[in-house]
Amino acid sequence: MSSQIDHLLDETRKFPPSEEFAAQSVSSPELYERAAADREAFWAEQSRELLSWNTPFTRVLDWSTPPFAKWFDDGELNVAYNCLDRHVEAGNGDRVALHWEGEPGDSRSITYAELTEEVKRVANVLEDLGIGHGDRVAIYLPMIPEAVASMLAVARVGAIHSVVFGGFSADSLRARIDDAGAKLVITADGGYRKGRVSALKPAVDQALSDRGDGEQQTVEHVLVVKRGENEVDWQEGRDVWWHDAVPAASADHEAQAFPSENPLFILYTSGTTGKPKGILHTSGGYLTQAAYSHKYVFDLHPETDVYWCTADIGWITGHSYVTYGPLANGATQVIYEGTPDSPHPGRWWEIIEKYRVSIFYTAPTAIRSFMKIGRSVPQKFDLSSLRLLGSVGEPINPEAWIWYRDVIGAGKTPIVDTWWQTETGAIMVSALPGVTATKPGSAQVPLPGISIDVVDESGTEVGNGNGGLLVITEPWPSMLRGIWGDPERYKETYWEKFENQGYYFAGDGARLDDDGDLWLLGRVDDVMNVSGHRLSTAEIESSLVAHEATAEAAVVGASDETTGQAVVAFVIIKESYLSAHDPAGLAQQLRLWVGEQIGAIARPRDVYIVGELPKTRSGKIMRRLLRDVAEGREVGDTTTLADTAVMSIISAQVK
Ligand code: PRX
Q1: Which of 14, 91, 155, 641 is deepest in the core (most CB within 10 A)?
Q2: What was the pLDDT predicted at 215?
Q3: Residue 422 in contact with ligand 1 by CB distance below 6 A
Q4: Which parts of the chain sit beneath pLDDT 50?
């Protein structure tokens, strides 16, 4: 099969930066020139400028045993020192590091001096519990300041954290604890979600119980934060209350320097098949690119900006753009514990108004759900502090992009659509605000210092105007260093496909437009083949969302006797439309609409109007399950869905 992905939808709107924005922006076109002149020298310069090294590095990149990279490998640093102490030493101890907002409305503002002291105490507690260099610590916490403090304390003592999203089950937690051989688990009695306390400690107890013969228990202690008022079962000797141990510990803790390639964390990500992959990231290169991208992509002015990334620390976005990037840069940020609609649908906008948030970073799935409710909700709040908006996690459809800019960004904020992955560790593709003219729906250009291409199955460049496979052609500082305990799987998954060229294959389809801007077309596993044309799910979804009735859409290819595959669409209609129109009529209208917008080849065979779409806990649509419904099969494994009931509702609606 050819890897050429046919492209049918055209987007011509462009928004150059305002003069006012460009004049104050931290980036400049000259960054691209410097990076192009000497890539490695550019990264060395960034690293020296943005980080404090105890032992300065003399080597930049060691790529002598690909695909295993080493960056800055004779340098030594402490990651937590870089995120905390040095800001206090520079006289910024009184700056707020975290404005934390709990779901019930409680809040705390924590300065860099306070966070530094807390992390030093936690580091002492960890060492008392036997945690040191190279040990693994599982973190299973809600979005509370202790979550950020835990990550940094683990880093401070040279241990490795594995954050497990609080929405994962006991079984998922158990698999992750066992794979990493964690010695300690840090958890809470619970956390607030949708107005009630969802329990966490019972899942830890369950994950650690019932060991079979020969099944080793690596966990020695469980450190428990009291957040809700949940009763917890207590195992004497194993369990330790945070509020007993941390305040009693010393606030003196010297940050020891560790080698640049010291592992910093493992983060599990699901593959298409088999068990989750423990993506391994290390220290100096990771922190360099996290800080660099955070500074330039978000145009960070740490003295004046208030930054808010809505991601949970359970995802890579919460690692790089809540904990490490912003704190390394000395930013002031907001973190929020709960769901966007608790206790009312305007909660996020209320938080932006309250803290005068200036930079806001979220996911397309959230934006589309706000579109579904309607603009009257955000319009009740004062969002005038916002000056930059970001998007991550999925392609953002042009219409959602425009809505985001108009309704949230008052029709003037630049939007950066950032493409990257758990594996890449930090942003790889994005506009630079103040430099790039932004284009709705396109992630646009590799960051200075990053080399990306779009190639066909044989690894040949497709060139502008064509679609193919997204590859990264040169090693980058925050690249994954492997899969925990499985170097073979690392090579096979990411490097085997373009072994001859030495390219990293990201698993995404992409297209270069005539300007050379990148358009992400979704995972290649999701691409459809209709009558011999490879069509992108993302493009047809964008066309559906461009219809005024649609809030959200997912498209799959279902096998079809005549065309090989047929386009099947699942569409959520905006609330204001549903009441006034009949569903059958709307479905027919949407079929014709896609036909007009893209062409007859893309016209869906079936359009199903549904109330919800199946999503993973990080908000990605699980098209595999929709394909099962579209092909009339029994629905496959739904255990990784955020809401497992959704599929039976959709199946019933479709029938
Ligand atoms: O398919 C791409 C999509 O999300 C994948 C990575 O997912 P994950 O490791 O969970 O990391 C999400 C946060 C970085 C990618 O392979 N993706 C991510 N960002 C974008 C995107 N697709 C299109 N546009 C984006 N901006």
Answers
A1: 155
A2: 73
A3: yes
A4: 1-2, 272-273
Residues 6+ apart with CB under 8 A from 429: 418, 419, 420, 443, 444, 445, 446, 447, 450, 452, 518
How far is the C-alpha of 552 from the C-alpha of 371, rounded, in Å?
Answer: 9
Residue entry with tokens 């305040």 = 247
Q: What is the pLDDT of residue 644?
A: 81
- For residue 575, the model assigns a pLDDT of 86
Query: Where in 208-283 does DSSP place strands (E)?
Result: 221-225, 239-241, 258-259, 263-269, 277-282
Spatial contact of 608 and 570, defined as CB atoms under 8 Å apart: yes
Q: Which helix (H) or strand (E) holds 646?
A: helix 646-654
**How does pLDDT run across 504-523, given as a tens digit for each residue?**
999 999 999 999 999 998 88
Query: Residue 316's closest CA among 295, 360, 286, 284?
Result: 286
Positive or negative CA dihedral for 549, 554, 557, 558?
negative
With a 6 Å cutoff on the Cβ, whether 349 touches ligand 1 is no
Q: Please give the model's pTM, rounded to 2 decimal places.
A: 0.90
Only one residue has tokens 């009693």, namely: 248
Q: What token pair was written down for 99?
A: 């404005």
Bridge pairing between strands 107-111 and 359-362? unpaired
* pLDDT at site 7: 64
Q: How many CA atoms lie less than 13 Å away from 430 in the CB half-sphere?
A: 29
In the prediction, which pLDDT does 538 show? 84
SS3 content of the chain, % helix, strand, coil (to 5): 30, 25, 45
Task: Confirm if 241 and 125 have CB atoms less than 8 A apart.
Answer: no
Atom 11 of ligand 1, residue of closest alpha carbon: 421
Q: Which residues of 302-313 are buried (b: 16+ CB within 10 A; e: fewer)?
A: eeebbbbbbbbb
pLDDT of residue 4: 59
| Contact call for residues 180 and 162 (beta carbons, < 8 A) | yes
Query: How far apart (Å, rounded) are the C-alpha atoms in residues 600 and 593?
Result: 10
Q: Whose CA is nearest to atom 5 of ligand 1?
A: 421
Which pLDDT value is given to residue 636?
Answer: 85
Residue 318 Cα to ligand 1 middle (Å): 14
CA distances from 126 to 64, 223, 251, 263, 405 (A): 36, 9, 13, 17, 45
- Which amino acid, residue 548? E
Q: How far is CA 567 from the centre of its chain?
A: 28
Written as six digits, the tokens of 561 are 């006797």
CATH architecture of 531-654: 2-Layer Sandwich (3.30)
Alpha-carbon distance 572 to 424, whole Å?
A: 32
Measured from the CA of 506, which atom of ligand 1 is nearest?
A: 16
* Residue 395, burial from CB neighbour count under 10 angstroms (0-12, 13-18, 19+): buried
Which atom of ligand 1 is least distant from the CA of 423?
Answer: 9
